[in-house]
Amino acid sequence: MRAQPYLPTPRLANMLAWILLSSLLAGCHFMHEVGVSCPPRCFGMQLVGRDMNGVNFERANLNKSILSRSSFRLANLRYANLTEANLEGSNLIGADLSHATLIGANLKHALLIGANLNGANLSGANLHGAVLTGATFEQAELRAAVFDEARMINLNLEKVDLLGCSFIRADLRGSNLKGANLDGANFSKGLLWSVHLENAEIHGAIFDEAEVFGAVLDGADMSGAKLDNGFFEGSDMHKVNLTGASFRNASLTGVNLDDSILVNADLAGVFLAGASLKNVDLSNAHFVKVSKEKGKELLLTAQIQGADMSGVKLNKANLAGQSFDGVIMYNVDFRPAILKADYTINGISVTHKIDVGDVIYNKETQFSPEFLPDNFH
After folding, report:
1. Burial of 102 (0-12, 13-18, 19+ CB in 10 A)
2. pTM of the entire structure?
3. Of 52, 24, 55, 28, nearest to 39 (Cα)?
4. How many CA atoms lie within 13 A of 116 on its CB side?
5. HSE-up (13 A, CA, CB side) for residue 278
6. pLDDT, tens digit, for every residue of 203-221?
7. In DSSP terms, which residues pair with 233 in a beta bridge?
8. SS3 217
9. Under 8 Å between Cβ of 149 and 128
10. What DSSP string runs through 243-266?
């Protein structure tokens, strides 16, 4: 009779697997030791669902390692190489990741509450749905990182490089982004209540349906930004560069835009009721445009009732078809603007003119003889 091959019991098999794993990890010296230096065989290590709380991984090379759903609570990962590592769903609460390399790392739904990411490089990292409350990012590199649906309340990201980052549906309420580089960032449907964006670089950023209530953007450069469908009620946008920005259907009710630059801006459909636009440069701005809605073309104008536009510059601004009823226009010269134009709407050519019938003006306001207020004298 031939002898049957010996098959270990499930319990013994698990013990043998653990012994083998322990022998492989022994060369990595990371169990609560100082100065970790993993040998090459640690590349691509798999530590799924492990308890690594408080473990010392300083300078460990965990490039492309699979560490998902593991717990690194209070672990030391200073200067660790976690390039393209998979940390999805991992617990990194209070972990020290300062100066760590996390380029292209997967940190989806990771818990990074109170984590130290100062000086870390997270370029291209995916932090979709991550919780980052209380984390620190001083001098961190975050270019092209994904923060979609991440919880980032009250974070200090002052002067951090966030070029090309995605913040779709992210919660950034109360965060400090002063002087940050946010060129090309996408804030669509994000929560940016009371955020500080003073002097930030926000060229070409997207704010589609973003809630930016009560934010401070003084001195920010938002040239080419798309504020379409965004909500900016009560925000302070004093001295903001909005050259070439688009405001289609954006709500800026009560916003302070004094001394800002809106040259070549698309203002058709914007809501500016009660806003302050004193001394704003609106040269070449478009207040009126033909828009296609549900298959039909219509003339879209800006909603500016009750706005204060004293001292604005209107050189070559398209105002043909725009109403200025109830708008304060002290010290404004309408003459250099486009006051009458023909539009083709649904195949029909229609002439539209500026409406200044009930504009609020003073003796310094200059009108074209063809278009005068009803009470002009």
Report:
1. buried
2. 0.86
3. 28
4. 13
5. 6
6. 999 999 999 999 999 999 9
7. none
8. coil
9. yes
10. TT-B-TT-B-TT-B-TT-B-TT-B
